[in-house]
From TrEMBL:
PROSITE patterns: PDZ. This is S1-C subfamily serine protease. The keyword Protease applies. It comes from Pseudonocardia parietis. Pfam families: PDZ_2, Trypsin_2. The keyword Manganese does not apply.
Length: 335
């Protein structure tokens, strides 16, 4: 079972690069809900470009950001680093000071207050996209503001280890083939109707042997963490220690899974709360406490609603057996 799961979920990793432009050197699932009707890419870009900004650091580095509130921008933590004061460049050619309010290294999310108000807030889609959905990425690669690239969602729930990122592991990521480059970090990943489905995060550079492998933080994660950071400057990360996979008809058939809904447990952290509770790879998780889990999106939503340290139950299907396993929700390592 583990070998079959692993074969379907292996991610070729090596030398993952963040999408932030560094200072110049001296002198140089079960299906998600149906998406909204798509409109032309030209219309989406015209409408959403004013909601994407460039974040410039005093050191000369830069990244991108997305309007979250009329005077708040969300970006990546690795874009702003330890900086407190930044400059925000807007699509209309103007700029204003920005103040970094709070950051979270685990999710790689930061929130920045802009001196300019009345910024256009886009719609954030918190349901996970489906592989194959068309996407647009908007940002400032290499300082080229308002650059738009297109592609599709290649996969969801990707896990990229810290050994590949050179820092904090990336979890539950959206994988895309839309080209992103240094400077795209913190920019918007949009669905076909112009909703923000992710915050662009990193890419595998060509020297790693990769072609068009990029990653974005799901909008649901960005919204959850941004709201926590704006509330009190900190963010907690409830943790089960499992990697879920959509329970598609193909997976059900290949693995002989009889459940029709739920989140398939693809991998486990052997030291995590789920493993301690008795969950095994190949189990189908159908509820957390009183919250039903029909999809991977449901799993993430239920987990976000539970504080670390909470005692609850995991309802799993293993073959024809249904079990309720007591578990204490953990806090993601490094939080």
């Amino acid at each position: 079972m583990t070998a079959l799961l692993g074969a379907a979920l292996v991610l070729a990793a090596g030398g993952l690069a963040g999408c932030t432009t560094a200072p110049p050197a001296p002198d140089g699932a079960a299906p998600a809900p149906a998406p909204a009707p798509e409109v032309s890419a030209v219309e989406v870009v015209a409408r959403l470009t004013p909601s994407v900004v460039t974040v410039r650091l005093p050191s000369g580095g830069l990244g991108s950001g997305v309007v979250y509130r009329p005077d708040v921008v969300v970006t990546n933590q690795h874009v702003v680093g330890d900086a407190r004061d930044v400059v925000i460049d807007y699509a209309d050619g103007t700029s204003s000071p920005g103040t970094v309010l709070a950051t979270d290294r685990i999710s790689d999310i930061a929130v920045v207050r802009t001196a300019r108000g009345g910024l256009p807030v886009p719609e954030y889609r918190t349901e996970l996209p489906r592989p194959g959905e068309p996407v647009l990425a908007i940002g400032s690669p290499l300082g080229l503001e308002g650059t738009v690239t297109s592609g599709i969602v290649s996969a969801v729930n990707r896990q990229v280890p810290g050994s590949a990122t050179g820092g904090t592991p990336l979890v539950d990521m959206i994988q895309i083939d839309a080209p992103i480059s240094p400077g795209n970090s913190g920019g918007a990943l949009l669905d076909g109707s112009g909703r923000v489905i992710g915050i662009n995060e990193a890419y595998l550079p060509p020297q790693s042997g990769a072609v068009a492998l990029g990653f974005a933080i799901p909008a649901a994660t960005a919204v959850d963490v941004a709201d926590q950071l704006l509330a009190d400057g900190t963010a907690s990360h409830s943790y089960l220690g499992l990697v879920p996979a959509p329970l598609t008809p193909q997976i059900r058939s290949a693995l002989g899974v009889r459940a029709e809904q739920g989140a398939l447990v693809a991998r486990l952290d052997p030291d995590g709360p789920a493993a301690a509770a008795g969950v095994r790879p190949g189990d189908v998780l159908v509820a957390i406490g009183e919250s039903p889990v029909a999809t991977v999106t449901d799993l993430h939503a239920a987990l976000r609603a539970i504080e670390p340290g909470t005692a609850t139950t995991l309802t799993v299907l293993r073959g024809e057996q249904r079990s309720e396993l007591p578990v204490t929700i953990g806090n993601r390592p490094g939080s």
